[in-house]
Amino acid sequence: MIPGKDFLTLLDFSADEILYLIDLSIRFKHNKVDAKRLIGIHNKAAALIFEKPSTRTRISLEVACHQLGLSPLYIETKTTQLARGEPLEDFARVLDRYVDIIAARVYSHKTLEILARYARAPVINALSDMYHPLQALADFMTIKEKFGDLSEIKIAFIGDTDNNVAHSLTIGAVKLGLEIRLVGPREYWPKKEFLDVVNKVAERTEAKIVITDNPAEGLRDANVIYTDVWVSMGQEEERKKRLKVFRPYQVNFDLVKTASQDFIFMHCLPRHRGEEVSDDLFESKHSVVFDQAENRLHTAKAVFAAILLEEKL
Fold this sequence. Notes:
By secondary structure, the chain is α/β, with parallel strands linked by helices. Helix 2 packs across helix 11 (about 290-310), helix 5 crosses helix 11 (about 290-310) and helix 6 (about 165-175) packs parallel to helix 7. The chain has two domains: about 10-130 and about 295-310, 3-Layer(aba) Sandwich (Rossmann fold); about 135-295, Rossmann fold. The longest helix is centred in the C-terminal third of the chain and has 20 residues, at about 290-310. The chain is built from eleven helices and nine strands. The chain has helices spanning about 15-30, 55-70, 90-95, 110-120, 135-145, 165-175, 190-205, 215-220, 240-245, 280, 290-310; strands at about 45-50, 70-75, 100-105, 125, 155-160, 180-185, 210, 225, 265. Helix content is about 40%, strand content about 15%. Strands 7-6-5-8-9 form a five-stranded parallel β-sheet. Strands 2-1-3-4 form a four-stranded parallel β-sheet, with helices on both faces.
């Protein structure tokens, strides 16, 4: 069951729950959710806490709240007493007295865990250093829209395979029993602790995880090719090194020759023009990045509704 549950990582959700959220997102997109059943959400308050800048996350969450009848409160932590040293535990307990649900975009995943421990209101991960489950949910929704079925899909994530987007995409794939290839330079492969966790899940679901530094091998017959920026927020000091190391992994038409002919290209955005993906591939018929971006809205509505309503929609 999802009602009242924190949404910190897809590791906490079953395949059935993930599929339910995907299907509910699609129903929201096509206006197939009975508005009368959303009355239980009306006039509730959602705290949207941001430590980091945002475009898609902030806008999708705020619009989702308005469309559901929730009251969104956008809160930059630098404008609160947290900036003057208030303990996060105290902040969480105070916030809990005012709002019905909390979504937070933070630097450290531990921040979310503390919020969830001290606030009775459900907490949604709107991005942390470890996971980005809202993005992964929109990704799998988009894949289902494009292929109609998820069961035989092969996903290749190329670039920095140890980042939060790659983590959540991998978790979603193994939960759903899919094949995922993590393609990138060895020094940027996922850490053993993470791989131990997802490999245990994969054993139960018969999913397949392939890790390689060979793009031709990793992209062979792939249905989905996914990349992210090479230099994320907080990594600016590593920029020169990262640009050099990741250059052979730029997604371009030469690199994707071994992929399935009908592959789709995905990117969580924002992109760095001229770096992780070539302009011609980004603008090609294979690219579904703006469908992904739109679907962040519909999946946000699904997550809010599934958590706040006592019964499934």
